[in-house]
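Our working data are protein records whose layout never changes between entries. Getting from the letters to the tokens is the skill we practise here. To make this concrete, we reproduce a full record directly below:
***
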Amino acid sequence: MNSPSSAADDGPVDPAPKPTRRTFTAQYRDRILDEYRGAPHGEKSAVLRREGLYQSQIREWAQAREAKTSCPSDRKSLPSKHADSRSARREMDRLTRENARLAKALTQTEAALEIMGKLHVLLESISESTGTPPPPRTP
């Protein structure tokens, strides 16, 4: 027999079970994608509401279907995550080097402009002290 003390020994009962993630078959996805794409502009959201889906899911399904049809199905053609990270690292290193090179060139250009400005002031002061008129400024 069940006594009140035996129910307390089992621990608290969770009133709401843990939700399970919905899964969709490929046929269902294809059917919904075709229906969604074929629906008139104002009816697309009705398809989503009826099926309990989000527009982002439709977008992901469409991208997956396009990728599946545009690429061969052999796994050798797909780059590995490790190869992607190596190429991203190489690209980041290249951009870092280019950034350093451009920063150095900018520093040199700024220094040259500063020297040119000082030279211009010096030449103007020499010109004024000798009494020669300054050259006409061009806009």
User: Anything to note?
Assistant: The chain has two domains: 22-71, 80-131. The mean pLDDT is 82. The chain is about 65% helix and 0% strand. Residues 81-130 form the longest helix (50 residues).
